[in-house]
């Protein structure tokens, strides 16, 4: 069955298939961290639906919440009508948001994907400011629909001005740390204030507090506060894309809480639906200049997702899973950093909470432009992912050239499971290093 399903998938599904290529698994059962394939193999899932599964697969509170709605006879499809299920979701969501933000906020239920909410955020700030340009960052990922894609790092768009996202490793200014972040902020300020910069006043700035797909790049808290001050002083709405960082993932319920920044708009999806599709924007009520019907969509009322989401948000809040993510994440990060001492191919280990990245490099090759960091090693990263899979561990690749091994385990991860994940990863790394095609510089981008 396993082989036949995979064969039919590759014959029938589009060439844009992504995860299915590097993870040839046919999941048939799942619980918590574990997925079982049709071939009977079991895997520890550190991809978690690209960071969606805050509580892992099929958590009892999530299943219970879904069953309760079904058993109650409540309608499953209601467009954007009010229901007790939706009312409970909004109440729980607002209770988790910073008070200063939630006390004067509105919510818009969007189409079901993160990218739908990003589009809604852009439309909102464009309508409210009467401007069209946007500020976005290098390495960003906001989705695959046209506007969201244009704001992502790989795209070009005349309405998007690209700013340097601060990074310690491969810092665009070659200095890293606080100084690199300071230079990034100064560049932003300069662009906005220089009448000859070629940048019209923007409708908004969008940023991820920790870039996910871009290779796990945490923004320094001081830089986040600078971005808030710069945008506030110039009446530019700040949009925090917390699609991936939200619901405890980074060690705070919302990643903006690390810096204390209150944005104008928050874009939320993934974990808020408790593993089912749900996406919203929450924003400062003064921005709500929309006319009735200005932003619509058939699938804005997914009752099962709202119920699953309410249960997830409440469970994370009541069990202090954000704090747990901070502690456990720090421990895993330390162990992985220790690994870097024995493996020169580990160029950098970074992250926040349970959002962790390991950047693989070719230490024997010289960096392009003679920068201090060795060039990335995509062939090695792909081999590590495959060796992890052979050892029953699912990891994701991200970042420039897909050379950052990413870990996004559920926040319910136990200490023992965390140890097993790191052990398997260390083993996979050692095995990949020994592979002939990964030992030499052919795997790197020069
Ligand atoms: N924003 C961020 C930060 C994301 O990580 C993602 C998805 N990885 C999106 C937006 C887009 O979400 P979706 O894939 O649900 O459209």
UniProtKB/TrEMBL annotation:
- Enzyme Commission code(s) on record: 2.6.1.76
PANTHER family per record: DIAMINOBUTYRATE--2-OXOGLUTARATE AMINOTRANSFERASE
Q: In which pathway does it act?
A: Amine and polyamine biosynthesis; ectoine biosynthesis; L-ectoine from L-aspartate 4-semialdehyde: step 1/3
The gene coding this protein: daT
Obligatory cofactor(s) = pyridoxal 5'-phosphate
The name under which this protein is listed is: Diaminobutyrate--2-oxoglutarate transaminase
The UniProt keywords, alphabetically, are:
Aminotransferase, Pyridoxal phosphate, Transferase
For this protein's source organism, the top of the classification is:
Bacteria, Bacillati, Actinomycetota, Actinomycetes, Kitasatosporales
> CDD domains this protein is in?
OAT_like
- Report the sequence similarity comment from the record: Belongs to the class-III pyridoxal-phosphate-dependent aminotransferase family.
Give the range the annotation lists for the signal sequence.
none
